[in-house]
Amino acid sequence: MGKIKVLTGNYSAAEAAALCHPDLIAAYPITPQSSVVEYLAGLVHDGVIDANLVQVESEHSAMSVVQGAAAGGGRVFTATSAQGLALMYEPYFRMSTLRFPMVMALATREMTSPETVWSGQQDAMSVREAGWIQMFCDSNQEIVDMIIQSYMLAEHPEVLLPVNVCYDGFYSSHLTEGVDLPLQEEVDRFLPPPSFHHAVLDPDHPFALDPLTPGPILMKYRKSHLDAMEKALEVIDEVDKKFGDTFGRYYGGAVSQYRTEDADVVIVTIGGMTGTGMDAVDQAREEGIKAGLLKLRFTRPFPAEKIRDALKDKKAFAVIDRSVSFGWSQGPMHMEVKAALADADSRYCHFSAIGGLGGADISIEMMMETIRNLDAHKNEPGERETQWYMVD
Amino acid sequence: MKEIRLHGRGGQGVVKASQIVVKAAVAGKKYGQFIPFFGVERKGSPVFGYLRISDEPIRRKMQVYEPDILMILDDSLVSLPSTYAGLKEGGTVIINSVKTPEELKVPSCAGKVAVVDATGISEELLGRNIPNTAMLGAFAQISGLVDKDVLFQEVEASFGAANREAAQKAYGQAAGLKE
């Protein structure tokens, strides 16, 4: 049992990062993530944590600085959102392909234009082919727990990949609620110090890091990176179990399910819309609809097998995306869930729902419309028109 | 679960006040949740806040469309259609004002209306117009959702003794306005 504190999502991320003994933190402020690093800067200043805090002039520099520190064997942390992530892209891609473990909080935000600073998951979805592990949180408790878990996952010797812990901008980053914050000694027992050595700079054994690499060798690196992603699917479950055994909170690994056992229709959610979706499922059940919810906790690696299992005996599903896939007239996770099922059109009534872009709300009523639509057509396999959660 | 919507202007302390309510709720072994909704982040622009208090864990993370309670920190906001929108039948309205409920055009569905001069109290005790802590005193009296002593304690811990006094004074004033 930890200490109950009332925290915003951003402060939850900062408190959790502090509990993991980061050696170095570098970040550049961008709404809605800014208070993560402001809070950590305070903890460093007050001597609560013994970390190097590097002030940088941009997100490109922030990721480059933490990359250098990771190459020195350090445990590092940063946070960003949207345009900040876009500016960071070049070293961001190199972080994963150098196989450096780290954890980055991503307070997800819509991408401009039109000019916006509000919520959305377009930033995270836009970098899903950059080699990072990506997971999405629903509650502030989950933010705390997943930052701690993610260091264990990232530094696992058969994984060695950076992890994005994503949570919805404003709807989670600025949401205040009670959190059971683990005690330092409990975290120290759970999470050993970093011990990755595959590319650590050692003055006694100098070598060139990341020299120009011919295609045939690069292909081996890529294959190995993809294999590590596959391995990560197992490690995610192992870490979830180990964390649950220590702290009493289990999340189910790469996906979690709510009232799906006997469900006919399932909504698939990502991140902070999940709690709202559970309330919608309960309401649907009261209306006599056998509804359930499948939460995609991890999107990279993509838990295809778990999705197939969860939807095996179901009749209909909709994936609710807080982002779009340009050129597909639907959300990116709907495309990927379909790809995981392969025979979706012949077996299920299914469609994509898109909502919550640029800070727009995703309400219970919007999700009820999705659930009622699925229930009305559950015996007619095939893809239906994308539903847009438009607000008048 | 009780759903509360706050309407104020940037700089009036909507966010801090709501966070104190969540702290008081959690200290009282209940669940609390607050989501702020900013427009442009600058002083004076309208700010919304969505506050929930419940005996059960709060799962939904969405805006409040049908509030049980409306807290209005600036009475010029009553002219916006969004301010009274969706108020539940028999719901509660707490307004920082010296005007009458008729002048404030409080909708007839309201069950309880409290008008408190939180600006006057804050100007008297704090020397400036930061009405949030006085509004918390009125909220504790009218809603009965959080323990007043725990709330006063949280106000003092966050903002000091003068703000506690502001909350206590508004608590006393709002008492006479109930129903």
From TrEMBL, chain A:
Pfam short name (any one): PFOR_II
GO molecular function, one term: oxidoreductase activity, acting on the aldehyde or oxo group of donors
Keyword flag Cell inner membrane: no
Domain called Pyruvate flavodoxin/ferredoxin oxidoreductase pyrimidine binding: residue spans: 16-240
An annotated GO BP: response to oxidative stress
Every Pyruvate:ferredoxin oxidoreductase core domain range: 263-365
PANTHER family (UniProt xref): PYRUVATE-FLAVODOXIN OXIDOREDUCTASE-RELATED (PTHR32154)
Organism: Lactonifactor longoviformis DSM 17459
Annotated protein name in UniProt: Phenylglyoxylate:acceptor oxidoreductase PadG subunit
Disulfide bond found in the keyword field: no
Family: Belongs to the pyruvate:ferredoxin/flavodoxin oxidoreductase family.
Keywords on record: Oxidoreductase
UniProt-listed InterPro entries: PFOR_II, Pyruvate:ferred/Flavod_OxRd, Pyrv_Fd/Flavodoxin_OxRdtase_N, THDP-binding, Transketo_C/PFOR_II
TrEMBL record, chain B:
InterPro entries: Oxidoreductase_gamma_subunit, PorC_KorC, Pyrv/ketoisovalerate_OxRed_cat, Pyrv_flavodox_OxRed_cen
PANTHER family for this protein: PYRUVATE SYNTHASE SUBUNIT PORC
Molecular function GO labels: oxidoreductase activity, acting on the aldehyde or oxo group of donors, iron-sulfur protein as acceptor
Species per Swiss-Prot/TrEMBL record: Lactonifactor longoviformis DSM 17459
Name of protein: Pyruvate ferredoxin oxidoreductase gamma subunit
SUPFAM superfamilies the UniProt entry points to: Pyruvate-ferredoxin oxidoreductase, PFOR, domain III (SSF53323)
Cross-referenced NCBIfam families: PorC_KorC
Residues of the Pyruvate/ketoisovalerate oxidoreductase catalytic domain: 10-171
Pfam family, one: POR
Annotated keywords: Oxidoreductase, Pyruvate
Superkingdom of origin organism: Bacteria
UniProt KW Oxidoreductase keyword: yes
